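Re: [ENG-882] Designed sequences occasionally contain unexpected residues at chain ends

Forwarding the minimal case from QA. Structure tokens:
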């Protein structure tokens, strides 16, 4: 083999290797990954501002390997529609509440067993053990970049209620996306009217509904408390949210970019978690000053609510909620409550 042949082979190998290095770096314009984040939350909210900040952090942390647009204010439709768009890659990332994320990870629904988890401290304790379990049960087409707390569900009504039987007389508005939770409430004997949140005001005006179960941070800005001016001071269940990316997009990212995206997202989620309790308390206080009556229950009345699930255990735990996960979570709570 003469020198010219050897030199030619070397140059071909060098050029090929150089091209491979640049491709791995993602420096070519075609390697940029475009990401649209869909959120049902208002752009002017704490979450909206946090998502705008997160978009900038993703771009900076990945050395502009990604370009991010955030679609706020529910412009991409309901959570069911966002999930469909995520699957078809119309959007690449979505912010889901419990309703949407339970379609991606059904196991997380177990956090919503009514009156099971009673406080933020208990929720934190359960999450320490259960988040890895939930992550292991996410459907393969999706990646949960970060979980986040969303506050607590409370009951708001036009008339004062204190007991389950009081609520059974009301027409309770609920989202059609909450299929499993709606099944639970029907098993317990409540009258449900399925409606989207935008139409709730109209249905309240026509008295088609006179109650709702929802988080205070949504009731306050929408001023639903002007009609539903009673709140039962008894949290039903915590809400968990998640930021979810479809796996098609995830697989386009380099391992380094994946790590940066997870790190930046968890930082924002941690900040939001720390503010949730304060945001909820502020919302309830502000509504209280503007006419909302916050009604306390007696210990006897609280027992009636707690017994709702116990009295219908076999119709709810197993058919609707995963019995094994329920037992695992209940064991954590009972141990903590007994002080062991």
């Amino acid at each position: 083999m003469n020198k010219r042949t050897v030199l030619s082979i070397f140059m071909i190998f060098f050029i090929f290797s150089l091209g491979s290095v640049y491709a791995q770096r993602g420096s070519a314009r075609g390697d940029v990954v475009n990401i649209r984040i869909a959120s049902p939350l208002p752009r002017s909210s704490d979450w909206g501002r946090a998502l705008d900040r997160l978009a900038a952090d993703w771009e900076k942390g990945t050395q502009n390997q990604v370009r991010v647009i955030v679609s706020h204010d529910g412009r991409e439709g309901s959570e069911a529609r966002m999930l469909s768009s995520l699957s078809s890659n119309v959007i690449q990332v979505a912010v889901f509440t419990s309703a949407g994320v339970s379609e991606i990870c059904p196991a997380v629904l177990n956090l919503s067993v009514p009156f099971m988890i009673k406080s933020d401290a208990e929720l934190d304790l359960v999450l320490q053990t259960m988040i890895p379990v939930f992550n292991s049960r996410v459907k393969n087409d999706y990646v949960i970049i970060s979980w986040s707390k969303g506050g607590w569900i409370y009951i708001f009504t036009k008339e004062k209620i204190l007991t389950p039987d009081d609520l059974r007389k009301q027409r309770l508005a609920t989202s059609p996306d909450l299929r499993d939770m709606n099944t639970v409430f029907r098993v317990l004997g409540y009258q449900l009217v399925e409606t989207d949140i935008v139409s709730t005001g109209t249905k309240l005006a026509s008295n088609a509904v006179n109650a709702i179960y929802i988080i205070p941070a949504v009731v306050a800005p929408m001023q639903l408390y002007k009609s539903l001016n009673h709140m039962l001071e008894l949290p039903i269940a915590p809400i968990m949210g998640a930021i979810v990316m479809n796996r098609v997009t995830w697989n386009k990212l380099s391992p380094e970019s994946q790590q940066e995206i997870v790190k930046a997202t968890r930082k924002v989620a941690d900040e939001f978690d720390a503010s949730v309790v304060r945001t909820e308390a502020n919302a309830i206080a502000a509504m209280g000053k503007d006419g909302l009556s916050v009604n306390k229950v007696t210990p006897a009345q609280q027992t009636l609510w707690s017994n709702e699930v116990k009295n219908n255990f076999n119709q709810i735990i197993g058919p609707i909620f995963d019995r094994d996960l329920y037992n695992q979570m209940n064991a954590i709570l009972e141990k903590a409550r007994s002080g062991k």
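QA comment: On inspection the terminal residues look reasonable. The chain is about 50% helix and 15% strand. Proposing we downgrade this to a documentation issue.
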